[in-house]
Amino acid sequence: MTATSPVKPQTPLPTRRSLAWRALAAWVAMGLALGAAGPVSTALGEQLGLGRTGRQALAALIVGTAVTAFILWLNGRVDRRPLAALGLGPAGDAARGFAMGAIVTGGAAVLVITPAALAGWIEFGAVDGGDLARFLILNALIAFGLEALPEELVFRGYAFTTLRRRGARTAAFLGTLLLFCLIMVPTSAAASLTALALGQEPDGLLLAPAGTDPVTYVILLACFGTALLAARIATGSLWTSIALHLVFLTVNRLVFANDGRDTGWNVEAAPDAAVLVLAYVLLTAAVFGLLARVRRRP
């Protein structure tokens, strides 16, 4: 008579409601970290004598560390999944994914901005190589920690993967996009509560950053979120979305929103040129959407 090893009981799949709550928890965590980081970095910056860049770097450290730690805990301890499930594969795949995101997004921006510049919508002036290099390096480091890494981990990494676990990809796509478009709700709530606790002036509950038209902002987020999800789906790598996010922020701050920024490049864009942001984002989304469709073919 041969001994047989006991059969391990299978762990039941979580319900759709449970998965939705987990995605919502990641959304709330992102909003809390991003909202609290602003007032906290302002208060600490005043105590430490930090300038604008120093405060932004401090906020990036707070958000990047807190959100990354929470998502890694949630994915590993609660969902019991490897990092690869979030699109964080081996170094080789990460490098290829990152390069794809940077090339496609940068190429789309060039294709849209070049004819606009020739038409006079955008004027490129003198360049200070040292200041430009400094801006590109600091902007990349701060944007990576403050926005690109934590937001991609939360939305295109954790939320999308979790919602897809027991649902159709379309439903997961739309659910992730909705959470992304409404991120200012928990962010502004956390920012206001933290500001009040620190004796600062709160902005209240907002759908868009103060001074920004909410409708325009949500439309931009919807287009941007679509491009980011298309990139994640097309390559399977979260690093593609991270690169897209970084290039998007860099191009916009260099060309369309460089007022008050020491970028090292004198660029003046007409007010109507802001529509070009939507144009190159949608072009990026179209390229990745086409790539995803081609790769699905047998």
Question: What brief labels describe this structure?
Answer:
298 residues, 2 strands, mainly alpha, 9 helices, two-stranded antiparallel sheet
Structure explained in plain terms:
The structure is a single chain. The protein is mainly alpha-helical. It contains 9 helices and 2 strands; from the N terminus they run H-H-H-E-H-H-H-H-H-E-H. The protein has helices at 16-48, 52-78, 91-118, 129-164, 169-181, 184-197, 214-235, 238-256, 275-296, and strands spanning 122-127, 265-269. Helix 1 packs antiparallel against helix 4 and helix 3 runs parallel beside helix 8 (238-256). It is globular and about 60 Å long.
In short:
The chain is mainly alpha-helical. The chain is built from nine helices and two strands.
Poorly predicted regions are: none
Shape: globular
Q: Reading side by side through the largest sheet, how are the strands ordered? A: 1-2
Annotation, overall tally of beta strands? 2
Structural class: mainly alpha
N/C terminus separation: 49 Å
Radius of gyration: 21 Å
The largest sheet, given as strand count, sense and whether it forms a barrel, is: 2 strands, antiparallel
Bin the helical content: over 70%
Instruction: Determine the strand fraction and express it as a percent band.
Output: under 5%
How many helices? The count is: 9
Average pLDDT taken over every residue? 92
